[in-house]
Amino acid sequence: MSPVLARIFAILALPLLAACAGTPKAPEAPPVVPGYEGIQDGEFFIEPVPAQYLYEGNRREEVAYAGDDQPGTIVVDTYSRKLYLVMEGGRAMRYPIAVGREGLSFRGTGVIGRKAEWPAWQPTANMVRTRPDLYAAYAGGLPGGLTNPLGARALYLYRGGRDTMFRIHGTADAASIGYATSAGCIRLFNQDAIDLYSRADNGTRVKVRTEAESLAIEGPQMSDAYGRLVSSTPENISKKERDLEQIARQAERDREAAAKADKQRLAACARRGIDPADCARPQLPADVVTVGTSDSFTSG
User: 216, 228, 265, 273: least surrounded by Cβ within 10 Å?
Assistant: First the structure.
């Protein structure tokens, strides 16, 4: 066959070859945990909570309740980082929470005196004065929305008819749930804040446990190798030791990989005659600053 004919046959065969190749597969969507799907809430779309943050014990769940609180009571346990809405029949809806510094300042009881959807937030003059790096940009207030630190819903705790400045609220910072945080009161996943908001009316009694009450009901707690609270048991203590060893080994592998990559970077620059001091490093993502709520702020 002549080169010209071979070329013609090759061109004619291209559509057939393309058809045989099949349609490329679309990338699979990340798994979505039931109850934590994306939500269109008014004008705002709340993203699904990534499954990695919804590990066992860190998602909304109906559980047996060991306390003696009356049905309808909200019980906040800052030591086990759990919030309970007590139900009939010795049951409760349990929500994981993040506990900020201000969330540790209140103990005892109060009532929900006000509720808000997509609440506004404004730092006080004291917050702006002490942490201008975080709060000066928001001195004029921040309207409700996806970037607002109070999230999709807020419940305001009152005592004796006065605002205690203790808030139970949503957050877009899903990674913080289940952990202690540097600022804020009591945070929930936005999906959980919406669920709790729909179940709790104004006037709902709220109890914040003492450490002794938490220990008596939840038992002793400990941080695992990743900073998450778990029951302090011999099994969890052993698991923490194993996990810490695994983390240390991975950190060593990461250091070795980084050193190898840096060596390759410098070698590539040397081949191009670039001085090591001028050899560009990979660009790292910019730090994300999460504005925290305080025990002394105003919100609408």
Answer: 273
Neighbours of 54 (CB within 10 A): 23
| Domain span holding position 260 | 234-268
One-letter identity of residue 260:
K
Q: What is the dihedral of CA 185, 209, 89, 222, to 10 degrees?
A: 80
Distance CA 261, CA 119 (A): 47
Rounded Cα–Cα distance for residues 62 and 199 (Å): 13
| pLDDT tens sequence across 49-106 | 999 999 989 999 999 999 999 999 999 999 999 999 999 999 999 999 999 876 677 8
Q: How many domains does the chain have?
A: 2
Residue ranges of alpha helices (H) inside the chain are 3-21, 125-130, 132-135, 190-199, 211-218, 234-271
On whether residue 115 sits in a domain, the answer given is yes
First to last CA, the chain: 82
CA 202/CA 43 separation, integer angstroms: 25
